[in-house]
User: What shape does this take?
Amino acid sequence: MSGMKRIWLAGAGMLAALAGGLLAENIENPGFENGLEKWDAQTAPAVAFETGRDAASMGESGLRVKVISQPAAGMLTSSRMPVEPGRVYRLGYWFGGGVVPAVASIEMVFYDENGVELPAPQPPPGKKARTVATGGKAWTGYELGAIAPEAARTAAVRIKPMSGPGGAVDFDDIRLEEMPAPLDAGSPLPLDSPRIQELKAEIQKNPTRGKEPPRVVIKLDDLKPGPGGGVSPQWQRVVDYAREKEVKLSIGIIAQYLESGNADFFKWVQDLNAANCVEFWHHGWDHAAEGNLKEFSGQPYERQKEHMTKANALAREKLGFAFTSFGAPFNATDASTVRVLAEDPDITVWIYGDPKNPAGKTVLRPSPIMIETRARPDFEAFLEAYAHNRGIDYFAMQGHAGGWKDDAFDQFRAMVEFLQGQGAQFVLPREFAGKN
Ligand SMILES: [Zn+2]
Assistant: This one.
């Protein structure tokens, strides 16, 4: 992608430019729309830098870094952008692709007034100045940070192939800019913004990259009866909305709380289940965490087995049916969970399971597209991830609807309505059973 990010940068970037007296917008050709133009490729026999449609996440072209054999060498360096010493810079990028994964590093490099490269920069707290990216996955956005060293006058982005002979990793949509101020966690999020409009326009140009529209699982976690044992207004609202829109939902129940449900709650669950418009799934017995110990991670096999089994015993007693899909609290599981699941006769689908150790279940892989980003529904972040992952066959997007206030609910509605406009099909986890 090329022209789009200039507009998006106009806010923070323009202020920084006015304050600093220089206009630093981004590196040139940051989305490889013009191939490797403005990038300096130092190639080696063991590696290749290619650009094209197969490596595109935005626009028509992206970068494919191929590792042909070991040892990998060579590097790709972007054009240089003016910087001011002491300021914090951000390198945002998307990576993924490549059927066989290879690994490449990505970093910010700084240069002095003579164009001489400076030693590796320091990152600001909580960030890394350099990291590695692995191919073979859905498109993922990531962000590095670095403090421009004292002598720095310009900065560039550098990508180095590392390992994974016969494989590749793709990069696209790179943005080097001054670190924007963090968003106030309390401020409402936009339902429309310049970036949302850009993303919608980008998606409209090529909605599914030649594939079918995706199947979408709406994965809502942490259902329990509300005060008095009934259905809370937040859960009632999201289910009513989904029924009105004829959108299927899946909802994870924390089983021990079924003890406190009243007759209305059980009838509500049973009716929705029978109508096949909501699937209720096994979200653990107590959802407990003690430090690093999670209900299904780090706990002994016997305890995990007991929690797996008694949740469904209680579901049968209170609801009249057993859960057939399982999604762990915190999505945290270990080898004992694999063993417990393999022995469990009820569960057929493992939501956000480990595709390498599926325990005999159909695994719904973790999703690159989520309802909640940084713990709250965020339509713009959803759309960003959706745009970069067009062509994905399915995804299970996660949220915690029991805590949604009005503005959070509005963000969720915008996602549903957008996906319906794209022809997405909303499905239940159990509809994947025996497939994949
Ligand atoms: Zn949970």
